[in-house]
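tmp note - Methylamine utilisation protein MauE domain-containing protein
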Amino acid sequence: MSTNPALRDTAFRLRCLQGGTLALFAIQVWITLPLWGVAHDYPLIPLFGLLTSAPAWSEWLVGSAGILAAVGIVAGLLGAGDKLRRGCWLGLAVCLLLMFELDQHRLQVWAWQVVLMGICFAGLRERDTAAWLRLLTIAIYFYSAMSKVDVDFLQSYGQTLLEGVFDLLPGGEKLAFLPPSRRMLLAGLFPVGELLVAGLLCFRRTRYFGWIGSLLLHLGLIATLGPWGLNHHPPVLIWNFFFLFQNTLLFTGPEALLPVAAVENSLPVSRRERLTKATLLLALLFPVSEWFNRGDVWPSWGLYAARGARVRLYLASETARQLPNDMQPFLQGGGEYRHLDVHRWSFDLFTAPSYPQDRYQFAVATTILNRLSPEAEFTLTHESTANRWTGKRTKTTLTSREELEAFASRFALNLQPRLESRITGW
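out:
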């Protein structure tokens, strides 16, 4: 145990944060429990083609290992040993990564954060852990803000969030009639606020104000997205509550706000720590690839990002009747072709959004089509990533299975589903 009061305080805060992170993991998995199994009709799309033949018991095996790892973390926090705690955090992170690989849908943003935090807890000494977790938190705000710096956000999701804010304000109904140009300027305050919080949290002298700003940001989001506003699903609200808890532990206290002698820096850096830092650095730099349409949106912290590529599936009215009865409510429109809203389907089954990447959405759409008769009539549209400044997209329309097969060649990762033989009654 260190004799430095600041480092003792950091150790206590990190133990609290580990308990909170484990609670976040447990609560979110419980709420979205069907997502982590296979007892549903939503397509299971592995990240890599080698896993398309993975059996149904894979989830049970990985899930059981994850539960054991969580129990081990609790035991470690209660005094069973530092090595046990570190090993179990690494085990939990690996189990989550395997779950992502078995089905891309599970790569929810909160789960990705738990993986990175678990790697920190497993591989770094306490003071380094606190520093890297601060860096991760700042990166989330920064990349989230950058994902909103585009015309599409200002015109779509930004306006939705703005309406939620208007609903909370006295006389907000009057603000709803502001000219579009002013509404876009107001929507621009969302990324500006995130950038401001990220900048203030970077420096010791302004960190307190950044912490206050982050609390106001998340409390505002909870009010806007909660039952008083847009009434979003519980996992979104729980994740925002977690940030209130996490930021208070990371960005307050003597180690966060005052210069502290680097007692731990006198210790030699182990190979484990070097590998951990290299892994975390790659994860922190990965979001830059999304700016060039290479990386996925959610691991790049594209929260409420609107410019990503889109896929929509439209079924001819006669073809739509082939869908099971429990999918009929997710058909929209009453014309010759009806849009199948797979995002609403995901929320209904899992209380979680569908993975937004166009690769995954294309795979889900083609899997659904393959469950229908070969004569099924459909139209699948793909809209490219929007230009950040103009909002322009390139639209491709596909109406035959041959066109689908040709279009699929542009995606590098897997598009094929798992366990389709279990689907009956279509």
